[in-house]
Amino acid sequence: MRPGWWPVDRLILGYLAAAGLLIGAYFPRVPGAGLLLGLHAAAAALIVLAVRARPRPGTASYKVQTVFRYWYPLPYVAACYKVMAVLIPPVRGVQFDAEMARLDLALWGANPTVWLERLYAPWFTELLQIAYSLFVPVVLLVAVLLWWQRRREAFRYYAFLIALGFLASYVGYLLVPVRGPRFLLAGLQRIELRGLWLFPWLQQTLDRLESAHFDCFPSGHTELTLLAWWGSRQISTNLFRGFSVYSVLILFATVYLRYHYTVDVFAGAALAAALLMMAPYLYRVKRPSVG
Fold it and tell me: Which end of the chain has fewer beta carbons closer than 10 Å to its terminal beta carbon, N or C?
């Protein structure tokens, strides 16, 4: 395991510091602001301790440190997502669903989620809901396979890219709070989406996890799926082909299932393309020397 600071360490510490400053600036308005600041400080301290620790190779402490340093971005970005849901209402106090709907209407001459009702079929709804719900496991699949193949440097870069993608999308949520067409356009929909077997349970589970969030612009499902699709090239051609099919399904599902406006999807795709171009440069700039 390489000692010293890794690019993902600096990325996440920078995000934690920025989020802490935001909480401090709006301290009276943010629910549980003191606790959130304490948790951010503790999370940052844990990273610093893991970087500076020098356990003897082969010991249990060394193995724990190794697993933590490679895998901690996953729970950290998940926690940051939950924090953003707390911050956006008091910090922003606005939402831009009406603007997104107007842009979609101007672009297509119709509301896409309403127009897509003509393609409605329970089996199709079931398929797309399953694809949409598998978003996180699919993104993690590339990381798991790289880890299993012991390709540690490739894993580190992929972890950096995915963490960068998640955190960049959170900034977008803060700048442009949007809840999605299933809330704003519910009165225009003539057909209630129904699946076959798993659809109600999957939808309700996602609602419990995400429905209170202003997490539509840009579409993180689009952005992160495309980043994972690009990363899957490292594993095998067959996996890349499978990811290509999955990417098409999930991009369509975001609008068909009424989670996103098409403007969100375009923004997510544009952000993914930008990060794929920028990430190698950022990774080289931040790469630590080998200690």
Answer: C
User: In 117-213, where do the E strands start and end?
Assistant: none
The residue to which tokens 């079931």 are assigned: 126
Long-range contacts of 49-55 (CB under 8 A, 24+ apart): 51/3, 51/4, 51/5, 51/6, 51/9, 54/3
Q: For residues 127 and 248, give the distance between their C-alpha atoms in angstroms, rounded to a whole number.
A: 12
Residue 242 lies in a domain: yes
In a domain, 2, yes or no: no
Q: Is 254 within the bounds of a domain?
A: yes
Q: Which residue in 165, 150, 202, 201 sits closest to 80, CA to CA?
A: 165
Q: What domain range includes position 12?
A: 7-286
Could you tell me which of 74, 71, 72, 82 has the C-alpha nearest to residue 19? 82
User: What is the pTM assigned to this prediction?
Assistant: 0.92
Report yes or no on 155 lying in a domain. yes
C-alpha triplet 8, 13, 19: angle, nearest 5° = 130
Peptide bond into 218 cis (omega under 30): yes
Phi-psi category of 150—alpha, beta or left, where left has phi over 0 and alpha has psi -120 to 50? left
Total domains, the chain = 1
Residue type, 188: L
Each of the 291 residues of the chain gets a pLDDT tens digit; together they read 667 899 999 999 999 999 999 999 999 999 999 999 999 999 999 999 999 998 888 899 999 999 999 999 999 999 999 999 999 999 998 999 999 999 999 999 999 999 999 999 999 999 999 999 999 999 999 999 999 999 999 999 999 999 999 999 999 999 999 999 999 999 999 999 998 999 888 888 887 776 568 999 999 999 999 999 999 999 999 999 999 999 999 999 999 999 999 999 999 999 999 999 999 999 985 444 332
> Is 57 exposed, middle or buried (CB count within 10 Å of its CB: 0-12, 13-18, 19+)?
exposed
CA distance 280 to 289: 16
Look up residue 114 and give its two tokens: 């309403």
